[in-house]
């Protein structure tokens, strides 16, 4: 989302009685597109996410994503500006109007630094981790889990503050699995909705009788922390080589030695990347640990990256 702005208008759209000028495409996924638009009423830029809905279930899922955004008014969770459903012949499009972040995502920042042979400093990592934990704490406190936390789903504000986005995979935090059919259904859902190299071990082979809870987010957060420390996720190369991520995540992660990182940060990472979800720290515990490691008082969120 950090593209240069160019006026190449293909017209305007109206959302909630306000007119928005199309500027350019920002990206597209399997069934969604993101455009950069400018509000003609305020001159501000926005990201317009358009989700193609082929059937009723798609419309319900898009509505649910909008509802998830509306649940939160938190500086570390992306807010929803407006939402509507548009008919396109026999199909529908869900439109989510969201704030535009010109700095792009955390992954954009990691890649930018990597291209220069650099990495985030430990102080920068801790400030980012603090904001991400605060966003997750708010999500978990309402009884939900993000389920697809990764560097490309974390935007950076003007001051470098992290903002969690893409709430389309969010669901209830605690899922009670009772029987093999429900286990397989959840496993299939995770395969479709939870990015493989950031997916928790318990989602690869769901047990017939178990509870899947918000600790899946803690594993994903560990993968995000690893990416901030080393410039790539711990299982990115496993996936790119075509090896089994499902097998790799069953073994305790080996953390590379690096003089850039304190033993306390490495221990924090190791605690998140525990295969047994019950042994991972809960987000409020992580939050207090990260606050204790802060180089400046935690109230001063002035991440500069």
Automatic annotation (TrEMBL):
Top-level EC class as recorded in UniProt: transferase
Substrates-to-products reaction catalysed: L-threonyl-[protein] + ATP = O-phospho-L-threonyl-[protein] + ADP + H(+); L-seryl-[protein] + ATP = O-phospho-L-seryl-[protein] + ADP + H(+)
Keyword Cytoplasm: yes
Function: Membrane-associated protein kinase that phosphorylates on serine and threonine residues. In vitro substrates include DRG1, ENO1 and EIF4EBP1. Also autophosphorylates. May be involved in secretory vesicle trafficking or intracellular signaling. May have a role in regulating stromal-epithelial interactions that occur during ductal morphogenesis in the mammary gland. May be involved in TGF-beta signaling. Able to autophosphorylate on Tyr residue; it is however unclear whether it has tyrosine-protein kinase toward other proteins.
EC number in record: 2.7.10.2, 2.7.11.1
Biological source species: Trichechus manatus latirostris (Florida manatee)
Superkingdom, taxonomy of origin: Eukaryota
Subunit architecture: Monomer. Interacts with DRG1 (via its N-terminal); the interaction phosphorylates DRG1.
Subcellular location, record wording: Cytoplasm, Perinuclear region; Membrane
GO cellular component, one term: perinuclear region of cytoplasm
PROSITE patterns: PROTEIN_KINASE_DOM (PS50011), PROTEIN_KINASE_ST (PS00108)
Bilayer topology annotation: Lipid-anchor
Pfam families xrefs: Pkinase (PF00069)
InterPro entries recorded: Kinase-like_dom_sf (IPR011009), Prot_kinase_dom (IPR000719), Ser/Thr-specific_kinases (IPR052239), Ser/Thr_kinase_AS (IPR008271)
Entry-linked SMART domains: S_TKc
Name of encoding gene: STK16
Limits of the Protein kinase domain: 20-293
Name under which the protein is recorded: Serine/threonine-protein kinase 16
Lipoprotein in keyword set: yes
Keywords: ATP-binding, Cytoplasm, Kinase, Lipoprotein, Membrane, Myristate, Nucleotide-binding, Palmitate, Phosphoprotein, Serine/threonine-protein kinase, Transferase
Residues in the signal sequence: none
MF terms (GO), sorted A to Z: ATP binding; non-membrane spanning protein tyrosine kinase activity; protein serine/threonine kinase activity
